[in-house]
Design brief:
9 strands, 277 residues, 48% helix, Rossmann fold, globular
């Protein structure tokens, strides 16, 4: 494996990781559906529907249209959920559900980047209530994640405050680079999906991990490294150093608004049309 050694006389750098099917073997949000069912947040029909969505996601990934349908479904499903209850359920089941599905190869990369002096940033379309604890579990320095609107009653309204998807991920990375002093030309990024092309294009060292067909084509055309992660491992066995309290994960890019998210959807729709011509 390559040695990722950092020269500390140079500007700061970071490694940006997509989460689902890049660091972990499943969809982080859908993985908790059984726990949400047992906690009384969803009914049996919703639990079965999310299990099917997980199967589809694992079988072939999710293109733009599927991601949009999933976003609308999950937003509607979580309307009225008490945020504190969600956080408690995630905290109680985090190790049982997430530990066994972390890729050994991803854990090794995270370890190498930290050893090289780089920050590790998780950038995920999943909700912050799920991504932040996973980021802490992995020892990430920061996370960027989708955020839902919370009402005065402490419950989700069903509206999306910030959607970490497509170009908004790239915008978040650029904002972090400005605030943290990262040299993006010397930064790394990892993802499995063509929807993350803007994120991959924003750094000097992009990598395709378990890529979908569209991303594989792009990676081959651009001579980007293609990595195959396929060995899930218990994190406490792989990274025993994380048995101590991990560094806190921080949410980034709060200022990116709905216009950027809309631009992201327009970008992917136009790109998809172009690739089918």
């Amino acid at each position: 494996m390559l040695r990722l050694v950092e020269n500390h006389s140079l500007p700061r750098t970071a490694a940006f990781f997509d989460l689902d099917k890049t660091v972990i073997a499943k969809s982080s949000t859908l993985t908790f559906s059984k726990s949400f069912y047992q906690g009384g947040l969803i009914n049996r029909r919703a639990a079965l529907r999310t299990a099917y969505a997980q199967f589809v996601f694992l079988a072939g990934g999710a293109d733009h249209d599927q991601m949009e349908r999933m976003r609308k479904y999950l937003s509607a499903m979580c309307r009225g959920w008490n945020v504190q209850q969600v956080k408690e359920i995630v905290a109680e089941t985090l190790h049982d559900l997430i530990d066994p599905i972390i890729y050994d190869e991803a854990a090794s990369l995270i370890e190498e980047h930290h050893t090289a002096g780089r920050d590790v940033v998780i950038v995920s379309t999943s909700g912050a209530e799920v991504v932040e604890p996973i980021g802490e579990l992995l020892g990430a320095d920061r996370v960027v994640a989708t955020r839902m609107v919370v009402g005065d009653d402490g419950c989700f309204t069903g509206e999306v405050e910030y959607y970490a998807y497509g170009p908004t991920k790239a915008e978040a990375i650029k904002e972090l680079a400005a605030s943290e002093g990262y040299d993006l030309d010397r930064c790394y990024a990892y993802s499995d999906s063509a929807t993350d092309l803007p994120m991959l294009e924003s750094v000097g060292h992009p990598h395709a991990v378990n890529p979908d067909r569209a991303l594989r084509r792009e990676a081959i055309a651009r001579s980007w490294p293609i990595l195959d992660f396929h060995r899930p491992v218990l994190l406490k066995q792989r990274l025993p150093s994380l048995s101590v309290p991990p560094r806190p994960a921080l949410v980034a890019a709060a200022a990116i608004g709905a216009a950027a998210a809309t631009a992201g959807l327009v970008w992917y729709a136009s790109r998809r049309r172009a690739t089918t011509l």
